[in-house]
# Entry
Amino acid sequence: MVISKTPLRISLFGGGTDYPAWYRENGGAVLASTIDKYCYITCRYLPPFFPHKHRIVYSTVETVNNISEIQHPAIRAILENFKEERGLEIHYDADLPAKTGVGSSSSFTVGFVNALKALRGELIEKNDLAKLAIHLEQNIMKENVGAQDQILAAYGNFNKIEFNQDGSFKITPLALESEQLISLQNHFMLFFTGVTRIASDVVADQLDNIKNVNNHYRKIHALVEEALSFLNKPSSPIIEIGKLLHESWLLKRELSKTITNPEIDNIYQAGLDAGAIGGKILGAGGGGFILFFAKPEVQPKIREKLKHLIHVPFKFEPTGSKIVLYEPNGFI
# Structure
């Protein structure tokens, strides 16, 4: 039996420039971090005593005899790609709900690949894990996904990730002083809007609209370096990050009509009215989690204002996907 533990993430700046439709022509960059909220994948070879070959447990339970019968698209695609012939039992659990903008789909892919490799007694380097997950999601599953989530899930940490036109990427971890990192972390607030959505569907309209909002993407890209210029100077006022987040949100909401709606706008405005400096909806938009940046002393007022939403405290996470249990069984 193998259990993988893979972090979810928050993306702060540059989101959208990590899609091939953009970076293949223009390059791209994001500033993002994994957080201490995880998805867990449990895998074992299924003993040959059952009327089914595969048992898959997530929000539903599937028992099938052929991989082609599996309804979960990622599990089916990955097992077909791996040409897995042995029976498997697979369990998926997560700290946060899926389809909510925290990179859960890619964390699942990364965690599942990591678990399958470990089950086979193989090691996979973080770089290869990220590249394989990107390939599986973009080329095999044909999902409308970027490339930051898979890299973050594999590597962990608070990073600047640059995307080159040839499809390669460069990861630069942020070397922040511990006090600065804690201060930054303490200024963030994460709330669940209560709305889930399929990111690939939301993104489709954004990708179709890229050429019409070219300048917006360039400005979003530029905000990565602007944010880094503040973070790399410990003497800079931390609230500048909140102001840049607000600027980023104003740009992001113009990329497509699918990104925001009256409910999201009302939540965001309520946060600002209660003292938040800035924020953004996470991921593709349309629902999911909303992130605010606010001074710690005003956060109780924001929590009270948004008490109808679930507040999720979090910390930054440094390690990425890892195997937390490995116990070989005899059904090989």
Summary: The chain is about 40% helix and 25% strand. The chain has a mean pLDDT of 93. Residues 121 and 328 are 9 Å apart (CA to CA). The first helix runs from residue 20 to 26.
